[in-house]
Structures are given as C-alpha cells and as structure tokens.
Amino acid sequence: MAISVSISHITPITLFYLLLLLLLSSTITTTTTTTTSALNITSILSSFQNLTSFSSLLCSTSVAPDLTRRDPVTLLAVPNSYLSTSPSSDLTRRLPPSSLGDILRYHVLLQYFSWSDLRQIPPSGVLVTTLLQTTGRVHSNFGAVNITRDPLTNSITIQSPAPFSPSNVTVLSLIKTLPYNITILAVDSLLVPYDFNLLASETRPPLGLNITKALIDGHNFNVAASMLAASGVVDEFEADEGGAGITLFVPTDDAFGDLPGNVKLQSLPADKKAVVLKFHVLHSYYPLGSLESIVNPVQPTLATEDNGAGSFTLNISRVNGSVAIDTGIVQASVTQTVFDQNPVAIFGVSKVLLPREIFGKDSAGVTSKPGNAVVGTTVQPPETSPSPENSAGFSGPASHLSSPPGFREEITSKGGRYRMQSCIVTVCCIGLVLVV
C-alpha cells in the first residue's frame, strides 16, 4: 500500500525565515566583533593590574595620545614589579617627562606581531621601526629595534641594532593581542636606545618659536600667516610644541590663488575655518627624511583630535621623488622646508589641503555647479612607499601585516558584503524552491 505524506506550505516558509534570521544574526555578530577590536592601548592596559605603573607613565609623558592614533603596533610593556627595580626605577625617577617619553616611544613597535610570528623569527633577527624613529630625534637607525630568537630556548630578545648595545630586554609573556592591530608583550626592563642622550631634553632650551613670523620671513606665505593669526589657532600650535612636537604643512600664496571658484574658504564659519587650519598640522615632529620614509602613511591631524579617530586624516607617501599629501580630494606636494628645528617642522606645500569632511560632495564649503567636479581636480591615488620594516628583508609571517590602517578592514568589509549578498541570494532561491 502506498503511503502519501503531505507537507504543509507553512514549514518551508518558516524554514526560509529562520535561515534569513540566522544570516542576519551572523552579520551583526561579525560587525560587533570588528567594532570591538577598535580599542586603544591605554584602555586595554587599564584591565591589567600588573601594568598600572606603565600605563600611568604613558599618560604622564603624553605618549598615550600617540598610541590611540597608531595601528598596527606591538607594545613592549614593563610590569610593575620590574618597573620598580633597577635599572628601570632609576630612569623613571631621574629623567624629565620629555626624555622618558622618548624612551617609552622606543617601546612602541610599528608592526603587529602575534605570538606565532615571534616564534618564527629567524635567529639572525628582524629589524623593526619604533615610534621614536618617526620623531627624528635619534641618529641613523637607532630608533629601530632588532628582535632575535634563540633557536634552542625560543626566548625572544629585543635590543638596539647597534653592535654591542648595552641595553636589551627579554619578552616574558604575551599580555593581549587583537589580530591584526595590537599586541602587548610583557618585557623585563625599560629599553634604552643606543647613544640616547638622557639629558638632551633637560639641557635643550625652549624653542619659543613665533610661527607667524617664521612664515612671513619665509616669503610667499603671507595668506597663511594672516589666516593663522586671525583665527587664533597659531597660539594652540605653539603650545603643542612640547612632547612629540608638531609638523605644519603651509600652502603657498599661489596655492590659495589657485583654489577653484566653487571652494568658498573665506566664507566658512570661524569654527570650520579653524578645523581646516588644524587639518594642516600633525601632532608629531617629522623632519623631511622621516616624511619620505614614513611608516604609517595614513596620519591623523590636530583636526582628528577634535573630531574623532578616522576623520580628517592625511595620506602621506613618496611620489616621483617628493613627498605627496593626499586628502582624498586634493593631492599636494612638499615644495620647500620653511623651518626645521626639533620639535617643530614647517613645510611649504603646493595646494591648500581641503578635507573631504568639509569640501566633499554636497558639503557646506563647496558651491556646486552643474557639470563641475567638487574641487575641479582629479586626484590619482598616490603610490605608497614601502615601510622601513618591509624593506629590511624580513619575509616572515609578520611582514604582510604592515598595511595602512583601514586597508585590511576595507578589504574584509567588501569581501563580507559580497559573501552576505551571495548568501541572501542563495537563501532566497532555497526558499522559493521549498515554497514551490
């Protein structure tokens, strides 16, 4: 006898909606995980009681703000018990904050290393750039560190690349890792760069630079000088000379004259005009050599600090033998050095740096005309020069993790969208088949 089984149409429809809900839940979870990983280092350190002293040093020396704008990094953190004993305790007691800050910058490696990456480092070692190298306050490559691994014990040692460097540290353990952005390693002492003048910051007299006067003396910067003086932001720039210093990109008078007619810079409200001026300033001292070999091409500006991470950033690279600065809608080049004395560097640039957040499409700073481009300039993406650590010849697992911030996430995000769209189409097809 044949047995007939009838399946209600409610069952496949219900199954279809369940599959769709599961897909959306998975997408939300992925998005949440990506957002959660965007944590800054100091907030991570606060959850570890044995790193409270080191975290306090980062804040008191003004290094902490630099860390929130760096990605990827590997931080060498010294636990409380090691920081309170010699020689680390001697350094923390007698050094001024400026010198101690530079030593802490030497503990910020501008490359991500997982624990497995460290285990695969060749015995000959790997040369890695640190945050200190980007300040221009060290000779040669003494702002870099050499990471070596003992093949017998697998112990990891970090020291200056200079021969017979007296200062070195041993990695104790892995504290935290957020692939592929942040790794925190515990080390057994503070690491001092080779030939580092511990008293340099103490004996160096305050600069007392008058930025407006320096621009007028440099000629061809009269428009920028008058705008800075009228806005009052120049006082803020001069107050920021301490710590990591500042780097200003100042448009020439010709650059202001070449602004497209649909860009109404002078008609901006005072607060937005101040943001545009701050968009021309990096909160770190970069001499020209450091700009030409900058490790992290996407750089935050003083405007970033006022408006949030990821906004008002500049993409700095080397193009055709000169330093190129890309805002997303304008690409300028460094034309001259106006002033360069640690901790302040001032460079003349060929164009006014227009932030896309203000002068992008349909923004208040642009008067749109039918058929016209937003700024009247087609910007080609600048070539990104290889970072120093990639040019060091290391081809191990960590070498592919030095992409600019957002690059890896952008690829992942696009791939995720395509996968999600494919899954939705597949589920819809299954649902239609089941219904029919």
From TrEMBL:
InterPro entries: FAS1_dom_sf, FAS1_domain, Plant_FLA
Residue ranges annotated for the FAS1 domain, each copy included: 38-191, 208-353
Compartments in which it is found: Cell membrane
Region annotation (Disordered) ranges: 370-410
UniProt xrefs under Gene3D superfamilies: FAS1 domain (2.30.180.10)
Membrane topology designation: Lipid-anchor; GPI-anchor
Biased composition (Polar residues): 370-393
Pfam families listed in its UniProt record: Fasciclin
Record GO biological process: abscisic acid-activated signaling pathway; cell adhesion; mucilage biosynthetic process involved in seed coat development; multidimensional cell growth
GO CC aspect terms: plasma membrane; side of membrane
Record's keyword annotation contains Thylakoid: no
Keywords: Cell membrane, Glycoprotein, GPI-anchor, Lipoprotein, Membrane, Proteoglycan, Signal
Principal location listed in the UniProt entry: membrane
SMART domains per UniProt: FAS1
SUPFAM superfamilies attached to this UniProt entry: FAS1 domain
Signal peptide (UniProt feature, chain positions): 1-29
Presence of the UniProt keyword Lipid metabolism in the record: no
Record-linked PANTHER family: FASCICLIN-LIKE ARABINOGALACTAN PROTEIN, FASCICLIN-LIKE ARABINOGALACTAN PROTEIN 4
Family affiliation: Belongs to the fasciclin-like AGP family.
The protein's name: Fasciclin-like arabinogalactan protein 4
Gene name tied to this protein: FLA9
